[in-house]
């Protein structure tokens, strides 16, 4: 979006609705921060929990903690409380760039986790697809590097802009005049939307669909008696966990798409 339609995107809430929104989002932030910090502490504190898969989970918890720290407080303050951006030019760039990086890192860590589980189910005996500590560290480094590269253009386009109604009110806005304005903004927004939302959603859909099909059609030799009953119960539990986890991912990405971080998800004047 450009600055011409900022007024159409303004939040219009009553005082009670603002208070309710602040309470709800504050609770979400507190729960998210505490829960994810506990996960990180457990993985770091206890040696037996320092597995490659848990390293990915800890990285996901770190990204989600940063999302809760960077997205909710600044969004609440600038959108509901102040209806402007009083934090200055530097934080305008850094905060929104960091928001984009952490959301992208969270999305691509989910991809890494789903691919790891897919390989574990499809190729349980393969050493080439087995996730090691070194591979996990490499994956985490790649995730954050890709996230930074994709979000980097925001550092160049984010700047302070004045309200068309009052020059004393400042907003953190995107200025695409150097990149052919609408064309540059549209191209980046489309690319960011695909990379942040559609690509992760496609990979998660394919990997968990493959896991579900593998578990559904798998047959264990000699499924009879107590051993057969145990194997069937184990398969049933894995199916339920996979289905539940996949649904959680769908909801997670739906929330991110609705909230948005990249240009086309928010008006140019980010309050």
Automatic annotation (TrEMBL):
<feature type="transmembrane region" description="Helical">
    <location>
        <begin position="94"/>
        <end position="115"/>
    </location>
</feature>
<dbReference type="GO" id="GO:0004930">
    <property type="term" value="F:G protein-coupled receptor activity"/>
</dbReference>
<keyword id="KW-0812">Transmembrane</keyword>
<comment type="similarity">
    <text>Belongs to the G-protein coupled receptor 1 family.</text>
</comment>
<feature type="transmembrane region" description="Helical">
    <location>
        <begin position="136"/>
        <end position="161"/>
    </location>
</feature>
<feature type="transmembrane region" description="Helical">
    <location>
        <begin position="56"/>
        <end position="82"/>
    </location>
</feature>
<dbReference type="InterPro" id="IPR017452">
    <property type="entry name" value="GPCR_Rhodpsn_7TM"/>
</dbReference>
<feature type="domain" description="G-protein coupled receptors family 1 profile">
    <location>
        <begin position="35"/>
        <end position="211"/>
    </location>
</feature>
<protein>
    <recommendedName>
        <fullName>G-protein coupled receptors family 1 profile domain-containing protein</fullName>
    </recommendedName>
</protein>
<keyword id="KW-0675">Receptor</keyword>
<dbReference type="InterPro" id="IPR000276">
    <property type="entry name" value="GPCR_Rhodpsn"/>
</dbReference>
<feature type="transmembrane region" description="Helical">
    <location>
        <begin position="20"/>
        <end position="44"/>
    </location>
</feature>
<feature type="transmembrane region" description="Helical">
    <location>
        <begin position="197"/>
        <end position="217"/>
    </location>
</feature>
<keyword id="KW-0472">Membrane</keyword>
<keyword id="KW-1133">Transmembrane helix</keyword>
<dbReference type="GO" id="GO:0005886">
    <property type="term" value="C:plasma membrane"/>
</dbReference>
<dbReference type="Pfam" id="PF00001">
    <property type="entry name" value="7tm_1"/>
</dbReference>
<keyword id="KW-0297">G-protein coupled receptor</keyword>
<keyword id="KW-0807">Transducer</keyword>
